[in-house]
Amino acid sequence: MRGLQTVAVGSEHRAVTSSQPAHIWLARHGQTQTNREGRFCGHAETSLTDLGKEQAARLGERLRPLALKAVYTSDYSRAIETAAIAVAGRALTAHVDPDLRELHYGEWEMELDRDIRARYPEQHELMRNEDPAWHPPGGETLGMVRMRTAAALERIAMAHAGEHVLIVSHGTAIACMLAEVFAMAPTHTLRIEVANCSLSGVTAVGGRFGLTLFNETQHLTTPAAK
Q1: For residue 131, is it within any domain?
Q2: Of 29, 95, 104, 170, which residue is the catalytic one?
Q3: 109 carries an active-site annotation
Q4: How many CA atoms lie less than 13 Å away from 102 in the CB half-sphere?
Q5: Distance CA 20, CA 129 (A)
Q6: How does 172-201 read in b/e, with b if 16+ C-beta sit within 10 Å?
Q7: For the chain, does the N or the C end have fewer beta carbons within 10 angstroms?
Q8: 180 catalytic residue (yes or no)
């Protein structure tokens, strides 16, 4: 990682009441080894690929015009490293929040999709059919992830009225927080696509959220400045 200091989110995190909107930027981590291999990876560690690191650098170029006041990540290295690359050169300390974690895949962790489809055909079919009752054995439901990620998003928004803030999290986690704050049906959560190092944006004021950008990837087609 590139020297980004981290601090756990704790009791010192206070809400700010203001009529000014918070500008929250949501980015998924860069490509990982498990992404490339097609493995389920939620509450397990995996490393960024060279492409993932390049994606993070390009994300940093996209974010350069923004006066970011804070950066938040999950507590997994792929998110922390992506954030470190993206905000390199800024005087920022990453706030590490476990509520921004990816869905916990339980017994499916680090397994290939084709193997899970063969070993757990009924649960795999529930996932593909977007059944709200689906969860990997020993893992989380999408509803659980929606609740904890939306709570984290709301806390962060309340604490940063009038400021621009970056959150680096995970694909399903970002889909879940957006689905929850915009009251999407439980059956539609997985219809939100979140690409590696894509950028989405929301504003929040008085507990009300508005979507300003969704899954932007144009910056990933332009090499980062050296």
Answers
A1: no
A2: 29
A3: no
A4: 22
A5: 40
A6: bbbbbbbbbbeebeeeebbebebebbbbbb
A7: C
A8: no
The CATH number that applies at residue 212 is 3.40.50.1240
For 18-69, the pLDDT digits (tens) are 689 999 999 999 999 999 999 999 999 999 999 999 999 999 999 999 999 9
3 sits in the region (left: phi over 0; alpha: psi -120 to 50; else beta) called left
The catalytic position among 54, 81, 102, 154 is 102
User: Domain limits at 60?
Assistant: 5-102+140-221
- The Cα–Cα gap between 73 and 169 comes to 6
Structure token digits, residue 142:
């999408």
CA dist 7 and 61 (Å) reads: 24
| List of residues 6+ apart from 38 with CB closer than 8 A | 112, 113, 114
Q: Nearest 5 degrees, angle CA 1-CA 100-CA 121? A: 105
Check: pTM over 0.90? Answer yes or no: yes
What is the pLDDT confidence band of residue 1, given thresholds at 50, 70 and 90? very low
